[in-house]
Amino acid sequence: QVDSCSTPRLSRAQRALTAQQQQPTNQLVSAMPKKGAAKKVEEPKIEEVEDEGEVDESGVEPKDIELVTSQTGCSRSKAVAALKANNNDIVEAIMQLSSS
Question: Where is pLDDT greater, at 27 or 71?
Fold first, then answer.
């Protein structure tokens, strides 16, 4: 007779499966960099541009420029420079302009 309050014993196969399922998580945790061991990533530089006059917007989507300027409050020329410096990555451009 099985007591309903007792914890069922895992079979050998179930224990092996449980250990196997936990292994990838353990590998991910051990592969994470240690605290304080982060390498400093050099941020792309935004070249100084004049805020006046025409800006070379080739290779940059106008809607991306508008989004960056509306989110950061920067000039159109700075938005273009940030987008180009960050390979047209909108989020990175906004983060870079917001932190400077």
Answer: 71
Q: Which residues contact 44 (CB under 8 A, 6 or more apart)?
A: 85, 86, 92, 96
User: What span, in angstroms and rounded, lies between the C-alpha atoms of 32 and 54?
Assistant: 46
Rounded to two decimals, what is the model's pTM? 0.52
Q: What DSSP line would sit under 13-30, residue for residue? A: HHHHHHHHHHHHHHHHHH
pLDDT per residue as tens digits for the range 35-50:
655 555 566 565 555 5
Q: Tell me the average pLDDT across 46-56.
A: 63
Cα–Cα dist 47/78, whole Å:
8
Residue partners of 88: CB distance under 8 A and separation at least 6: 59, 60, 61, 64
How far is it, in rounded angstroms, from Cα 3 to Cα 33? 46
Strands (E), the chain: none
Q: What are phi and psi of 29, to 5 degrees?
A: -65, -45
